[in-house]
Design brief:
CATH topology of the largest domain: Four Helix Bundle (Hemerythrin (Met), subunit A)
Helix content: over 70%
Number of strands: 0
Number of helices: 9
Strand content: under 5%
Number of domains: 2
Structural class: mainly alpha
Order of helices and strands: HHHHHHHHH
Shape: rod-shaped
Largest sheet: none
Radius of gyration: 39 Å
CATH class of the largest domain: Mainly Alpha
CATH architecture of the largest domain: Up-down Bundle
């Protein structure tokens, strides 16, 4: 026997079904809202990490430039440490972002982060060479010696030669003219060597440095020849001659040290690397991060419901 539900029972059943549908829809609605809120928070955190990486990368770059341009070893070392510390922050934030993208990122985002990581590795490789050079300051040390102790030694030599020239100008001795020529020749030759030091220190090309050193060697040979003849005329016991010879000997020793420092060329090399290779590497990193940040920001918070064909 079939039992047909009464009108009242049917009404209750219909009402229950409607209530169940409403409750289900409300649950789905709140679940979607909670899911969207969670995704929004995760997206904000990813964007924040990218922003921190970009800021730290800029800080590392600025500190690196300061290390290159610093005028003392202490300043260079301080800025180099700051650059390395900022670079470490970039790497740490990169690792944090990689963990988030593994569970909450998209394939495109992970690929973009991988591209950035490769660019960062190249940037850090350049940094290691650049900062190691910058803190040595060999060109600055060469300048300090050239225009400090070396110039002082030549000034002492110059003063003694000037006294010889003054005395020779009033002398009636037969060799007076020859003494004047020798003293003037040694004096001008020594200062020509000094004048060649500055371009050598600032020169980046080994070939050009070779040429400058050849000119110095030629001038040095002439100076030594003039001083040898001058000593023969005036006698080795002359106070001025002794001053001239000791001054030129000190200058020669300092010149050797200056050329050794100049040849290392750490300031010139670090500046060239900073202006060319490092600047390009940093720009590639920043561009990769900008693209990654935009991709994260454009990621939809909710999935679109498929549209049924009519």
């Amino acid at each position: 026997m079939t039992i047909r539900p009464g009108l009242k029972n049917l009404s209750w059943m219909t009402g229950g079904l409607v209530l169940l549908i409403v409750v289900t829809l409300l649950a789905l609605h709140y679940h979607r809202e909670e899911d969207a809120a969670t995704k929004s928070a995760l997206r904000a955190r990813r964007v924040e990490l990218v922003g921190q990486m970009r800021a730290a990368l800029s800080s590392a770059s600025e500190a690196e430039k300061s290390a290159v341009m610093a005028t003392t070893d202490q300043e260079s070392q301080t800025f180099a440490e700051q650059s390395r510390a900022a670079s470490a922050v970039v790497e740490q934030r990169r690792d944090d972002l990689a963990k988030l993208l593994e569970t909450d990122g998209t394939r495109d985002e992970r690929d973009l982060l991988s591209q950035f990581s490769r660019a960062l590795t190249e940037c850090q490789h350049i940094d290691r060479e650049l900062l190691d050079l910058a803190v040595k300051n060999t060109n600055l040390k060469a300048y300090t010696l050239a225009f400090g102790p070396a110039a002082d030694a030549l000034a002492e030599m110059d003063g003694a030669l000037s006294r010889i020239l003054r005395e020779g100008a009033t002398s009636t001795a037969p060799e007076a003219k020859q003494v004047l020529l020798l003293a003037a020749g040694a004096q001008s030759g020594a200062w020509r060597i000094q004048a060649l030091l500055a371009p050598h220190i600032s020169e980046a090309s080994d070939q050009r440095m070779d040429e400058l050193e050849a000119k110095m060697a030629n001038e040095d040979q002439k100076v030594r020849s003039d001083l040898k003849e001058l000593t023969a005329f005036l006698g080795p016991g002359s106070a001025d001659i002794d001053t001239v010879l000791s001054g030129y000997a000190r200058f020669t020793d300092l010149k050797t040290r200056i050329l050794e420092l100049s040849r290392q060329n750490t300031n010139v090399r670090s500046l060239i690397i900073s202006l060319k290779q490092k600047r390009k590497a940093v720009q590639i990193c920043q561009d990769a991060l900008a693209t990654l940040e935009q991709t994260i920001q454009e990621e939809p918070l909710t999935e679109r419901m498929p549209v049924s064909p009519r």
